[in-house]
């Protein structure tokens, strides 16, 4: 019995050897050359793993005790872009944007940077009365808010006492107390938190006015009822370069009068409580920018409908002479 099994086993081995020698070369596993020159078969699984290691981006190990953010989607390191801060844009994406003439604002808008969890408002502590912030490269958009005190017999007239500006990402660009040029009859401390002692380090109105004018020149100015802020600064700004959250049609439903309050918009749209104590012009400027960014596409559409059609209509008459007749072609 044992001899029979041994004979059958030998026949089976011979048959397998014959079939193996007749198999076409293309069906064989690719060979890998050793250093000495001989060829050895490389397992398919091993080759596949090597290919995947070459093609796949190297991920940093996750520290123990922290949860994974899940599988990345889109480009490599996309999770870093989506964390919610302009500083988390990976270098390759930033360089690509720069090479293609894409602004930091457009990049942030595309990836929603600074919007999640109201990061524009809580990203940093205000640096009160700092003046112009060092090292900030301002883009196309700035948001502004002012605090005012009362002058005149009854203190009803408003003058500038503090002004703050932030950029598109909510970073503080400018903040200063301003020394009123008239005698203050109502400091409005319960609202603004400003007292006479703040005037000891306040800057002169003319200096602040010039610095603010330089900051907003040529930029899109965002604010809530911004005309009042411009009035106390005694500045003007092109209407086409203003985005006012108090006058935006998409926010009218939240107002009980002609315009909604900033505090109401923050609560309804951002689920935030602001102005619970003293008002902060830095916080209000950040909230205005966040509201604008939340509905930016609708702001842009409203602006286009309001101004671009007017500009096109005005341009149709641009090829006429002073007498109103069309210029003849020669």
Topology of helices and strands:
Layout: H1 2-21, E1 31-33, E2 39-41, H2 44-55, H3 78-81, H4 91-99, H5 104-111, H6 119-122, E3 131-132, E4 141-151, E5 157-167, E6 172-179, E7 184-186, H7 189-192, E8 203-204, H8 205-216, E9 220-223, H9 226-233, E10 242-244, H10 262-270, H11 281-294, H12 296-315
Parallel strand pairs: 4-9, 6-8, 9-10
Antiparallel strand pairs: 1-2, 3-6, 4-5, 4-7, 5-6
Descriptive notes:
This protein has 330 residues and is of the alpha/beta class. Among the domains are: 91-123, no CATH class; 124-312, 2-Layer Sandwich (Nucleotidyltransferase, domain 5), CATH 3.30.420. It contains 12 helices and 10 strands. The strands form 2 sheets. Strands 3, 4, 5, 6, 7, 8, 9 and 10 form an 8-stranded mixed sheet that branches. Strands 1-2 form a two-stranded antiparallel ribbon. The protein is elongated.
Give the end-to-end Cα distance, rounded to a whole number of Å.
115 Å
How much beta, percentage-wise?
15-25%
Give the full name of the CATH homologous superfamily of the domain at 124-312. Ribonuclease H-like superfamily/Ribonuclease H
**Global morphology:** elongated
CATH architecture of the domain at 124-312: 2-Layer Sandwich
- Major beta sheet summary: 8 strands, mixed
């Amino acid at each position: 019995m044992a001899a029979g099994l041994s004979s059958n086993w030998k026949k089976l081995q011979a048959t397998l050897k014959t079939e193996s020698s007749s198999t076409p070369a293309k069906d064989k596993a690719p060979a890998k050359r050793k250093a000495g020159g001989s060829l050895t078969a490389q397992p398919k699984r091993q080759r596949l793993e090597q290919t995947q290691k070459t093609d796949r981006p190297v991920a940093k190990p996750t520290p123990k005790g922290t949860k994974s953010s899940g599988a990345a989607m889109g480009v490599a390191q996309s999770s870093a872009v989506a964390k919610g801060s302009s500083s988390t844009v990976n270098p390759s994406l930033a360089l690509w944007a720069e090479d293609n003439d894409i602004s930091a604002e457009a990049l942030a808008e595309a990836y929603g940077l600074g919007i999640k969890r109201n990061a524009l408002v809580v990203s940093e502590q205000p640096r009160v009365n700092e003046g112009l912030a060092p090292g900030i490269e301002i883009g196309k958009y700035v948001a502004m808010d002012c605090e005012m005190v009362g002058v005149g017999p009854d203190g009803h007239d408003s003058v500038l006492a503090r002004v703050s500006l932030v950029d598109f990402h909510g970073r503080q660009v400018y903040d200063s107390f301003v020394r009123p040029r008239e005698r203050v009859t109502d400091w409005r401390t319960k609202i603004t938190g400003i007292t006479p002692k703040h005037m000891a380090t306040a800057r002169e109105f003319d200096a602040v006015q010039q610095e603010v004018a330089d900051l907003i020149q040529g930029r899109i100015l965002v604010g809530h009822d911004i005309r009042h802020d411009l009035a106390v600064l005694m500045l003007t700004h092109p209407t086409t370069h203003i985005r006012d959250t108090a006058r935006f049609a998409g926010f009218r439903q939240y107002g009980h009068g002609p315009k909604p309050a900033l505090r109401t918009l923050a609560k309804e749209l951002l689920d935030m409580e602001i102005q619970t104590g003293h008002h902060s012009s830095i916080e209000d400027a950040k909230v205005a920018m966040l509201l604008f960014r939340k509905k930016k596409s609708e702001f842009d559409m409203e602006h286009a409908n309001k101004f671009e059609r007017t500009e096109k209509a005005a341009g149709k008459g641009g090829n006429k002479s002073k007498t109103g007749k069309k210029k003849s072609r020669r």
